[in-house]
Amino acid sequence: MNHDSSLVNRLTDRLIAGELRPGERLSETALAKEFDVSRNTLREAFRVLGEQGLVTHIPHRGVSVASPSTADVVDIYRVRHHVECSVLEYAPRNHPNAVRMEAAVEAAEKFAAEENWLEVGTANMGFHNAVVSLSDSRRLMRSFANVLAELRLAFLKVEVLDFLHAPFIERNREVVEIYRSDGPGAAAARLAVYLGDSERQVLGAYARAGQD
Amino acid sequence: MNHDSSLVNRLTDRLIAGELRPGERLSETALAKEFDVSRNTLREAFRVLGEQGLVTHIPHRGVSVASPSTADVVDIYRVRHHVECSVLEYAPRNHPNAVRMEAAVEAAEKFAAEENWLEVGTANMGFHNAVVSLSDSRRLMRSFANVLAELRLAFLKVEVLDFLHAPFIERNREVVEIYRSDGPGAAAARLAVYLGDSERQVLGAYARAGQD
DNA sequence: CTAGCACTCATTGTTCAACAAACATAGACG
DNA sequence: CGTCTATGTTTGTTGAACAATGAGTGCTAG
Q1: Mind telling me which SMART domains this protein's record contains (chains A, B) (predicted)?
Q2: Would the N or C end of chain A have less CB density within 10 A of its end CB?
Q3: Does B2-65 carry CATH code 2.160.20.10?
Q4: Sequence-ordered list of residues with C-beta below 8 angstroms from that of B114, at least 6 positions apart, any chain
Q5: Domain extents for chain B?
Q6: Which residues on neighbouring strands pair with residue A25, listed in sequence order?
Q7: CB distance A82–B82 less than 8 Å?
Q8: CATH second-level architecture of A70-209?
Q9: Where on strand D do bases come within 7 A of a protein Cβ?
């Protein structure tokens, strides 16, 4: 399954890059030919992606790119609140991985200056993954990364990559600074507020786009 | 994949029932014959189980039942602390699913009276899954259920099903009662203490068994 | 006798071809 | 206009085949 892991990665890259649109049907034969693998191998990759929530499988109707509903968005933000805030709150005061958060903020600022909003989004995901990395738990990081990938599909679905990401760069920076100065507890409280705001904005975009 | 989901479930059942011992090698041809499916179908199921952490895959050496190390146990308890305590703390005061917790406690007591420790363990898993169900988040419940299944493999590994489970029945009951009387915050604090105790006991069993 | 090495064998990784089953579409019919 | 059947397409699953890798075996040389 060496080759296969690479296949999963290639598919994931195309998904979060927005090349495969949310809701789009993924034909086994077409994709198998495109990636030059057999149908069986592709199906194994699909199962992994399905387990990660990036792809939806309906029996006898094949797989499509996941298209998160508003209910899914709400669910995802519940996970984010519980995981991110709890991890940040109980993180030690000077965790080595804090530099990852700072690096993600700086990367986001750089890409924002270039108006490369897709990469800003990636950097934003990197920031929140960095937050969870303060837990020192591989399992938590893995599960959380999946949830964030799903959330990116939600962003892609309503096509709001630009203005939705911009304001959060500054807020991410604030969270790091508060963590540095006032400690994990205060940072967690602030993050909770920001997550609530973020959720409202995404749901607003859904409502505007007329999506369910 | 209708049939396949059932295959994943059948395999999972045998895993958490302890019929397939942690570390045991799982031959593709043998299991394919036993479950009367083709090798390809079995491999797809293996991928799902691998993604869930129940099974370990090493390239060209096949899959074996996961055999959690002490590092894994520590990791799992980190997840449990963050998820369970956070969910309980922020749960509404009278969540409908609280009855699930109570039901799980009663089931555990019933099986304990029969000295059926395997089922006591299952009921214990049910209790903690019920706690997480207070989050109303499918994703959190799904990920958490996987982590708990892995933990059960850890229990099976050191063959301590009996005395390790018994004391927690009473503690689970206490958590519910505190939740009912003093509210979610107090219950979460108590649960945190109990999780710490539980982790120490499991790690102690690992040390006694001479496992890594 | 033992260390090292080539070799054999079993198992996994991957592909292909085939068929059954379910779904979707189109056309016939009332 | 709506419903039903017929056809075609896609998925679900199987079995066989072959390459690639690992593991164990036995041989040879020292």
Answers
A1: FCD (SM00895), HTH_GNTR (SM00345)
A2: C
A3: no
A4: none
A5: 2-65, 70-209
A6: A64
A7: yes
A8: Up-down Bundle (1.20)
A9: 10-17, 20-23
